[in-house]
Amino acid sequence: MKKFIFALLACCAWWLGGAQPVLAASPNFTVKTELPSNQLDPNVHYFDLLVQPGSTQDLTLLLQNTDTGSHRFRISPNRATTSAAGQIDYSQHAASSPTGLAVDIETLLSKPKTVTVAPRSTKRVHVQLQAPKTAWSGILLGGIRIEKLDHTTGETQAGVGITNQVSVTVAVQLQATKTLPALTPQLQFHGVKTKLTTAGALVFAKLENPLPAIMHDVTVTAAITQAGHSKARLKTTQSALNLAPNSTFALALNTTAKALPAGKYHLDLTATNGQQHWTFGHDFTIQKAPLEAAKQANQPAVTKHQSLPAWFVALLLAILAALIGAIIMVRRRQP
């Protein structure tokens, strides 16, 4: 019920606010965007900008604190990345960039800062954008993350851009030309990464979208077969993946419940966006976990002490029987 009330209040604020749409709301703060004159699509709530090379402008957010106490917020401009689940992520600051990235949008926006908003008031927050001096191809994609630092208990408001109950992300998309180039989607495969757990190994396929364009609605199908076996040890299909421009990511192929033991494996991976198709194959090895290797190294010594040869056991029994017989005879001779 509370979620419905907050959603209704957010919609009312949007209707009454006119030019500034409510991007998202939580129980005690809302975020609005002031869309500038170079906004390409006025019907979206994020910054979709046609930017002149070498230009400078401020991106303005209206941060409203509806609570009775003041709150501190961290404003972090980030480059868009692709998560291990294959979805666009705007929340990572200073994320490692692929070698083919020509322009990092995070370097074009002002550095992270912290602002304080007084009780029941609205603060205008500016993030400066400094465009590259020369034009670029395709789009540059990032986001401005607004995170409430003094966390309080509350409910989340469903909506575009909310990453958790105390943070909101506003996407920023930049292009230097009104018409984007027609780019044929590409998908690159860079091998396999494994992560050892107590249950076995998690397997990730290292993939890359090398183009300055979002790759939408990708389906990935993977089959992992252990050496010496014909039947796949693990099969998975993941659909509706959306890859950020110029991004590399490690797509998780299994969970802890399906972790794989040590051994040699082969991965067959196919991907499609409905028009293009990609096929990859790769051999890889899962090493023993340190604890498992130590147990196996100690196992022969333990077995050797626990299992004695049959002849040795028979000899011991014979000696024991002789000793018992000698003791009995000595006792019978005693007066």
UniProtKB/TrEMBL annotation:
InterPro entries: WxLIP_HBD, WxLIP_PGBD. Residues 158-290 form the WxL Interacting Protein host binding domain. Residues 1-24 form the signal peptide. Keywords: Membrane, Signal, Transmembrane, Transmembrane helix. Residues 29-148 form the WxL Interacting Protein peptidoglycan binding domain. This is DUF916 and DUF3324 domain-containing protein. It comes from Lacticaseibacillus baoqingensis. It comes from the Bacteria. The chain crosses the membrane at residues 308-330.
